[in-house]
Each structure stands twice: as C-alpha cells, then as structure tokens.
Design brief:
The protein is an alpha+beta fold. It is built from 12 helices and 36 strands. The strands form 7 sheets. The protein has an 8-stranded parallel sheet with strand order 3-15-18-19-20-21-22-23. A 7-stranded antiparallel sheet has the order 2-27-30-31-36-33-34, covered by helices on one side. It starts with a helix and ends with a strand.
C-alpha cells in the first residue's frame, strides 16, 4: 500500500460515466462468430502452484477489530489515551478512585494497568469494542483478565450489553487476595441475544482495591477454536480461495512513518501480554478517514501469520523493513554502517521459521507450540522502497541471506509505480542484482489495466521473475468508499490477469490489495473482502480473484484469435491452461464489450475431451453494480454446462462478462 496519494489514487475520482464509455468502445457491429483456437498439446509455460495468493496488511481494521477475534479495544490501557475505548460510570467519582498506573521502567512492553479503589457506590467499566462488539445468540464468550487484589471485599459482575444497554449474558467473579502477585482468571458465559454493536460491562461491587490488566473477551467460535484466535468466517473465506501464499504484514505497515514506528517482527512474538503496542500508521494517514483509535496490539503477530498460512495451505511470504521508513512521509533511513541489526533480523526470522529447536529462534518457535519448521521459502526486503538508497541496502541483505541461506528466494521492491523514471531505474538496477523476484505494484484506472493486459508479453524470460504484489482497479470509487469495488473494476482486473496467466513464465506470483475492510472503520478503498462485526461478503473483485486461484492449472497453452494472442480484439481477453492433475482444460475469457459475442472454441491435440464443458460465468450489464451486506452476491459466478461438438465448443459471451470454461480430458 502506498502513501503517495497523488500518484496511486489519482484514478479515484474519474467520472464513472467516462469509464463506462471506455468499455463501450469495444462494440461488435455484426454477430460474426469468433474462431478461437487452442492447442491443448503445447505447453508455453509452467504455472507455479502458488501463483495466485493474498496480501494481508493491517489496514481498514483488518487485524485488530477484524480477523483478530479480540473484542475488547485497548485491553491493557496502552493507547496514548489510556482509557480510550472505555467508559467509567459511577454515581460520584471520588479523587483517586480510578487511576492508571505506569511501571515503564519495570515492564516497558506493558507498562500501564488500572487501579480501582472502592468504598460504597458501584463502579462500572464499559468497553465499546471496535465500532461495537458483534455478539451472537447462543454462543459462548471467553472472558479473561489479569488482576491483583490489594484490599479484599470487591466482587465483579461481567456482562454483555446490546445497543440499548440491555443485558444479554453475564457471569459473576470474586477475585482472590493477591497483594504482590498478578493472577489470571478465565470465565465463560453464553449470550442470550444477538447484537451487532454490543458492549462489555464490568461492575465492581463491595469495597476494596484491585489492579486490572489485559481485560479480554473472545468469541467461542474462533478459527480451530484456538484461544487468542482468529475470526473464523474471515479465515474460512481465505481458505476457500485456496491462495498459494499469504504476503504479510504489509504494505506501508512494514515501513512506518518513521523508523521508530516501523514493524519489528521480534516484538510480535512470545506471550501476548509482552507484545508492545504500536501506532497503526493508517491511524491518521488518510485525511477524510482518520481513525485515532487504530493501533496494533500484535495479538496477530508473526507466529500467527505463519500458523495461518499453514492452516490454509498457503506459503508464508513475510516482508521486512529494509532500514528505510516510508519515503512519502519522512524518508528516514538507517545509515549503512548501522544496517547490521536489520540484516540480522532477516537472518533470525529465517531461523525462527525454519530452524531446529536447538537454535535460538527455533527454540522460541517451539516454545510457542510449533516445534515443526514452517518451511519458509521466500522473504521480501522492503515495501515500495525506491532510489539508489534502497538498492545499496538491498545488496547488503541479499549478500547476507545468500551466504547463509542460499535457498531462500529474495523479493525486492520495484517502488510505487509501474512505469516512469523511478521504475525504469529500479528495474535496471534490480535485474543487475538478480533477486528471485521484483515486486511490481499498480493502483490504476480500468483503462490502464485494459491497455496493459499485454504488459508482460515482451518481458525478458530469464533472470528475476515478477511478483505482482499489489494491484487494484480504481474505477470511479471515491476515497470515501461510498462507491466500493464494482463490476467494472473486477472485469478490468480479470482482463489484466489473463495477461499475467498467459505469461506465467515471467509473472510467477500475484495478489490483489488490500484484502480486508471493515465497513465502519476503513481508510482505503477499494478492497477485496468487506466485513462488519457479524457478517462478511466478497466484492466482485473477490469472485474474479477466487476463480483464477481455484482454476490456476499447471501449464499454459496457446489460445489465439486470428493467429494472435487475445489481448483486446473486439474487447476480448483470454488465457488457457491445462491442469494435468485434474485433467482439465481451463479457458478464461473476458468480454469487456457492450455486445453479445459468439465464440467457437476449436481445440487441437491428441487428448480425448469429455462431451460437456463446465462453465462459471460472471456477467452484469451494469458496470457500476457492486456487492453489499444487503446484496452479497449481486455480482457473483453462475454455473452452467454446455455440450461440445467433437472438439469444438460454441459459446455465447454475454456483454461485460468473465467466463471460466472447464473441459475434462483423458490422454
């Protein structure tokens, strides 16, 4: 994700009507059948098993308040405003009754805790969660806290409240005397009603003094029922996409506004209470979408990212800071003479992921419950960094990693733009260094994506491969997000992706960005998957990405129209692959024109094809149609079948449609 808003969000604000006219340029004046030829016996390139992946960044409340299932905001009082997210209710608060105490010298990772001294009147703490708490009727909720009872006599009533303040589940707790030592307590209770924006209430009764920290509430249905777990519906949506990799943790999150605010993976592992809070750099970054309550608690840290990748069968792809802060914020860099610790962080991460349990960092992984290595194969150095200062720092990383871990593939940054002076410089310099991948990003208009569907047709076939690490079509979606992903953006992405697939020997990995967005707390749009506190839906772009990912195949085969690659002729874009494992021919074809087109697919080769094709079609005559919580599948695939005549398939391509055609075969 890029902070250069003028550069990368410039397409936002295009007039939607003019973009529709762009698509309408591709008109078909006569219903002439297009003869599309496929050679099913010829392989042009191998498709990597992990070609289509996902990119996760903690933006749009994607981690805290999103996939990380913790419901309590500011659970350890570490926000700059220690009681942000909390309301304190008393009949008449007395001086010193509620105190936030600081022990930074003793515990810099978790310095603050709350002290309540009670005499008579009840004290109530209410946590409002992340834009409310999603509460489900009949579900168990797991409450926990750390406490130290200094003066006995206090009891607690823990309850869930709905939007109106009605109690919808509760339990009681009598703390044990603890004086010096902190104790941990876990309680569970069941919600009696559903609430979209519920709250947690803690009422303190009696008299005495108690210290509180790490006040937490998790739903009982986390992914794989793990404590401190992830939101199951969000993980399941990712799993259903069958991504080949997960790139994490960003994005601009990696860089930080300055070096002090950069992402440091070592601060995100180990006991939850020892993971030091960090400002989320998207907190105040987008002027009209400021979220001053947005921080990173790192409950979702590098261990959990690796574990998530393993859970859903995706390869982990971590990105590390290259000793450079965001060049559009402060452009702060670490001098070359002081870069050693940053390089060592990269080496230590590889050991954390892959090292034996006898190693320093392999032991830490084992202590967290995963003695088996995570089998890390690739590692990114820097996010959207550019200029000679990046090149000289990258060289130091690649030399050290290559020497100690020669099998680890290094991914380098091609900066923020897909063309121009900055990109041309980097592309030349990086290819001289010869990293495994060059990470190209593009946030552009629908017009750009259509015009660049053949971008990689003439790229070099040797040397560094391309990682299309971040891309999204911005087709008239205002930065406010009132118009999010629409069918036009998804259709243009599909056309572009046929070009990525057709050039799978050049582009070996690709991922859309950003991944998640909370409808009440997002900074950036468009986004692939949208959530509220209880529900989730995929955008039109989500269905395009999913269809490519679950139908990636193993071998690229030739597909032509008039003996040419299909890159915009009459608004058509196409790619073709074989899946040698499933024994399928898979054709992906986009009709970006406003007219119906007849296509006759002529399949050459010695394979014996089944008589019926399975087709997944997304078509909508309204280019600005989008999905929503109310209409989650307004733009989504429809499955049909079509009979072949011999090895020919005659098929009608609807206006503004993306079609995936699968035909089984045997040799």
């Amino acid at each position: 994700m890029t902070l250069n808003l003028n550069v990368k969000i410039s397409p936002i604000g295009y007039i939607t009507t003019s973009l529709i006219l762009l698509f309408s340029v591709f008109t078909v004046t006569a219903q002439t059948t297009k003869i599309i030829k496929i050679n099913a016996d010829k392989t042009l390139a191998k498709v990597q098993p992990n070609m289509w992946g996902v990119f996760f960044e903690d933006i749009n409340f994607g981690a805290d308040g999103g996939i990380y299932a913790e419901l309590v905001k500011n659970r350890s009082f570490e926000f700059p405003e220690p009681l942000m997210g909390w309301d304190v209710n008393t009949k008449k608060q007395k001086d010193g009754e509620i105190l936030v105490l600081n022990q930074y010298e003793k515990n810099p990772s978790n310095p603050r805790y709350l002290q309540i001294t009670k005499e008579n009147d009840d004290v109530q703490l209410i946590n409002k969660g992340f834009r409310g708490m999603g509460i489900k009727k009949g579900l168990r909720y797991d409450f926990s806290l750390s406490y130290r009872l200094q003066q006995p006599g206090i009891t607690m009533v823990i309850s869930l409240l709905d939007e109106a303040g009605k109690e919808i589940g509760k339990t009681d707790f009598t703390p044990k005397p603890s004086s010096k030592d902190w104790l941990k307590e876990k309680l569970s209770f069941v919600a009696t009603e559903t609430s979209m924006k519920g709250k947690l209430s803690i009422v303190f009764k009696g008299s005495g003094q108690i210290d509180l920290d790490m006040i937490s509430l998790f739903p009982g249905d986390t992914w794989k029922n793990r404590p401190n777990g992830l939101r199951a519906d969000m993980v399941k949506t990712l799993e259903d996409m069958k991504p080949g990799f997960i790139r994490f943790p960003g994005g601009c999150i990696v860089e930080g506004r300055d070096m002090a605010n950069r992402y440091q993976w070592k601060n995100t592992i180990g006991p939850i209470e020892d993971r030091k809070l960090l400002l989320n750099r998207w907190n105040l970054e987008v002027p009209n979408r400021q979220t001053p309550d947005y921080f990173q608690t790192f409950g979702l840290g590098f261990f959990e990212y690796f574990q998530l990748s393993e859970d859903i069968g995706a390869e982990p792809l971590p990105i590390l800071n290259a000793g450079m802060a965001c060049q559009y914020n402060t452009a702060e860099v670490v001098s070359l003479s002081e870069l050693g610790p940053y390089v060592q962080d990269a080496l230590d991460l590889i050991e954390f992921a892959n090292g034996a349990v006898e190693t320093t960092w392999g032991k830490k992984r084992a202590e967290m419950g995963h003695p088996k290595p995570f089998n890390l194969k690739m590692l990114g150095i820097g996010n959207e960094n550019f200029g000679p200062q990046y090149v000289e720092r990258l060289k130091m990383f690649t030399a050290a990693i290559g020497k100690k871990y020669p099998n680890i593939k290094v991914i380098s940054s091609a900066g923020t733009d897909a063309d121009g002076r900055q990109f041309d410089y980097l592309n030349k310099e990086l290819r001289a260094i010869d990293p495994a991948f060059i990470d190209e990003h593009y946030y552009r208009s629908a017009e750009w994506f259509l015009k660049n569907a053949g971008r990689y047709d003439n790229y070099p076939r040797t040397g560094s491969k391309v990682f299309a690490g971040e891309y999204a079509v911005h087709s008239g979606a205002e930065a406010s997000g009132v118009k999010r992903n629409n069918w036009q953006s998804a259709l243009a992405a599909a056309a572009f992706m046929t070009g990525l697939e057709r050039n799978a020997d050049v582009v070996e990995m690709a991922s859309y960005a950003p991944l998640f967005a909370h409808i009440n707390a997002f900074q950036w749009s468009p986004d692939l998957i949208w959530v509220d506190n209880l529900n989730i839906y995929g955008s039109p772009d989500f269905y395009v990405q999913k269809l490519f990912s679950i139908n990636k195949g193993t071998d690229v085969t030739p597909i032509t129209l008039n003996n040419e690659k299909i890159v915009g002729q009459d608004g058509l874009y196409a790619s073709s692959v074989l899946d040698e494992t499933k024994k399928e021919l898979i054709i992906k074809i986009v009709n970006s024109s406003n007219k119906t087109q007849q296509a006759d697919f002529e399949i050459a080769g010695n394979k014996k094809f089944k008589k019926t094709a399975q087709i997944q079609e997304i078509a909508n005559g309204n280019l600005i149609e989008s999905n929503s919580m109310e209409k989650p599948k307004a733009v989504s695939p429809v499955e049909t079948t079509k009979s072949l005549k011999g090895k020919n398939l005659n098929y009608t391509l609807k206006p503004y449609s993306f079609n995936v055609i699968k035909i089984k075969y045997s040799k």
